[in-house]
Design a protein that fits this description.
homodimer, mainly alpha, MgtE N-terminal fold, CBS-domain, Tetracycline Repressor, domain 2, 3-stranded mixed β-sheet, transmembrane (chains A, B), CBS_dom (chains A, B)
């Protein structure tokens, strides 16, 4: 038997296959493309679809073997699933849909127009429809939407041997076996009493009772809890599975590590895209149609451009001052740029700290005190430099204006930048929505006012 | 027995305890603080330290019970560990250090001055020093630095029953048991042959051989592989543990899910802080001293401010044009702001896609084609609007200047914004280092040149 060859590159590149498939598609050589695709695992095909031009996605999908197609369909993002479905026959759609887990069905239904969603739901057999219905009963963004079903429940009065027998008898399908690495222990009516890791069962004395071995000081979340919060708990406490319960302490599902990973990855992508001033794409970049990229960006650009009209108006107010001293206009980009950068730094740091739970809205006074100090220090350093450079090159009066403006703008920007995400969180909006570009726009207008007021005062115009 | 009470808030707030401890510390009431602290688990104390003022951290730490202190020390960031160590006795330091896993020891040593690191390493007993040395032998940022030791290796010729016996006999300490959810199967000399999940062993026929059950189509990484790449593989393929090997296919460790979570969380924090234009903090916000926040930000601000002097010079070149038509200066913040925002959007999207492996440097042509299209569409939309508004309020000549400038700047910004991260990755720099503020600065200067050239052309000045 040969040893395993370790993977040495980055995420498996499969460059040859990918290029081959793309080449075959361009030549409309379907048999060749099909042959190449059949050499790939479902995960590899998923990767390839994530990197395919949007128009190629349905073509590739139709060339797949049925069982691979089902796995691939389950693995891609709901938005990609929706795009795919549009080009398929109703029968195929219903079959693919029926193969998804209840949580996957719920996420796809959220993406579909209401009437199509109704039809799809109606196409499911009774029991599946009921599970999908339960999941759909939890609000979007809740952990109830993302949890996995409980495959087996243990009883505290059982011995280890009895528990292991029960696990064997449960006849769990192979591809779901890895989700039983941490198991719930329940009393009557599915009341959660504790959790136990499978490894503990394997290593413990076979005659010991579950009660004597299980963790009873267990973290659990309500099914209505925010999915990101639940996923972070999972990560922070190194849990293989986090139990999800209803208000009556009944276990209704498990958030497994793999789901926690997916949730956190989605959240990070959303936060990062919002921080860059666009609407989250919710699908891989290369497989996103250009017109969808456009739509994700134009709304915020328009809002920001309209906000920036404020700066035109501020400058108009000070037009006379500008006419008297055109040299003042030379520093406008530098000053508002520095303000924007300082605001960005503070906003990004606080937004991330909020996401990690390191900072909470009630810490507003502590955060503000720190950012005022940081902003003042940054402003003093940059201001001294500005004073010196502008003073030497132009005049000491102008130097004083630039220096004082930098001091004020940095202090202002750090404070505004740190407060906005806290405010957003407080009123229940994603802190990343008050994103860096938005803060820059506010700081730009305020900074210009400060600049011209200081200029008028010192230069006496 | 009472059912488990699900946790309903966000990450456990422990507000009462936290306020109590902070109050006791302020009053220098050490016994009271100690009593409150002893009610908390190690994870809860870690959370509290993450949210404590830097000056309180060593005080809290000294009040902990010894066993809790060891767990807390292992859980906090290396930078926090270093800060703590500075205030402790040599004996205590050596003991705490000795309790860390080899990977934790290596990370802490990286934070320490060379001579202190030497002393600490020398304080370890022989076998521990050897493991720490092995880990230190892998480059910083490699998965070899973060992997966990292999606790047990299975043999392909064993039966399931024999494997389970071997696991029991290995006598794995309880707190490490959860790391055996996925086990390596090896031949002579630790050659990796396959992997098997513990759940598969439990559910399979006790007489079956490991060979017939194990996964042989196994993903593995070299110990020198980048830790983020390895962690993403773990996440993408839903692995409970990813085997780490050397060049001769010998297994040298396992990247377990909990470690993968930690690595990804650190990387996301770094990327987000870099995207905001600051040096990553590598420790929680509230426990970071203000002067460290200052240092993390001032360098980039200075670099960006010096870069922005370019805009002053560009404007100086066009000072005559500005004197002739002061109205042109009114639009400067709006135009460069829009350019900066468009560049941000493209840069953030591409940086994130690179981090996820959705895009690779060799996709440069595909990315550029897409971003040119998106930039043109965004520019056309905003340009049309700019033409209309500036045309109606000022003059159609000026409207044409604003409209054309927006069209050009958006196209330029989207292209530059998308190319920079790809270029960074290509030359082996973290793409997030070419962060949004940096791109804005470049786009600002280029945008101003375009603006004044178009103005001169159309307005004939």
């Amino acid at each position: 038997m040969h040893p395993v060859t370790p993977h040495t590159g980055s995420i498996p590149t499969l460059r040859a296959q990918e290029l081959g498939v793309r080449e075959a598609l361009r030549k409309s050589d379907w048999p060749r493309a099909g042959t190449l695709l059949r050499e790939l695992t479902a995960t590899q095909v998923e990767r390839l679809l994530d990197r395919s031009d949007p128009k190629d996605v349905p073509v590739v999908f139709r060339l797949l073997d049925k069982d691979v197609a089902v796995d691939v369909f389950a693995a891609i993002e709901p938005r990609q699933q929706r795009d795919l479905i549009e080009g398929l026959q109703d029968d195929d759609v219903q079959e693919l849909f029926g193969q998804l887990q209840a949580s996957g069905q719920a996420r796809l239904l959220d993406e579909m127009p209401a009437e199509v969603a109704q039809q799809l739901l109606a196409s499911l057999p009774g029991s599946q429809r009921a599970s999908a219905g339960t999941v759909l009963g939890y609000p979007a963004g809740s952990v109830g939407r993302r949890m996995r079903p409980v495959l087996i429940e243990l009883r505290s009065e059982w011995t280890v041997a009895e528990a292991l027998d029960a696990i064997r008898e449960a006849d769990i399908p192979e591809r779901r076996q890895r989700f039983i690495a941490r198991l719930p222990v329940v009393a009557h009516a599915h009341q959660l009493q504790g959790m136990i890791e499978l490894s503990r069962l394997v290593t413990a004395d076979q005659g010991a009772t579950i009660e004597s071995l299980m963790d009873t000081d267990v973290l659990a979340v309500l099914a209505t809890e925010d999915d990101e919060t639940a996923a972070r708990l999972c990560a922070e406490h190194d849990l293989l599975a986090l139990p999800v319960t209803d208000e009556t302490h009944r276990i209704v599902g498990l958030l497994t590590v793999d789901q926690a990973f997916d949730i956190l990855e989605e959240e990070e992508s959303e936060d990062s895209q919002r921080a860059g001033g666009s609407t989250p794409l919710a699908q891989p970049y290369l497989s996103t149609p250009v017109k969808r990229l456009f739509r994700a960006r134009i709304v915020w650009l328009l809002v920001l451009a309209i906000g920036a009209i404020l700066t035109v108006q501020v400058l108009e107010v000070f037009e006379e001052t500008l006419e008297t001293m055109v040299v003042l206009s030379l520093f406008v980009p530098l000053l508002i740029g520095t303000g924007g950068n300082t605001g960005n730094q503070a906003a990004t740091t606080v937004t991330r700290a909020l996401a990690l739970g390191d900072v909470r809205p009630r810490d507003v006074v502590r955060v503000l005190r720190r950012e005022l100090l940081v902003g003042l220090s940054l402003g003093a350093t940059l201001g001294a430099l500005g004073l010196l450079v502008a003073g030497l090159v132009y005049s000491w009066d102008l130097g004083a204006v630039i220096g004082l403006t930098l001091l004020s703008v940095c202090t202002l920007a750090a404070s505004v930048g740190s407060l906005m995400p806290l405010l957003a969180k407080k009123i229940g909006v994603d802190p990343a929505v008050f994103s860096n570009p938005f803060i820059s726009t506010v700081v730009d207008a305020l900074g210009l006012i400060v600049y011209f007021l200081i200029a008028r005062l010192i230069l006496g115009i």
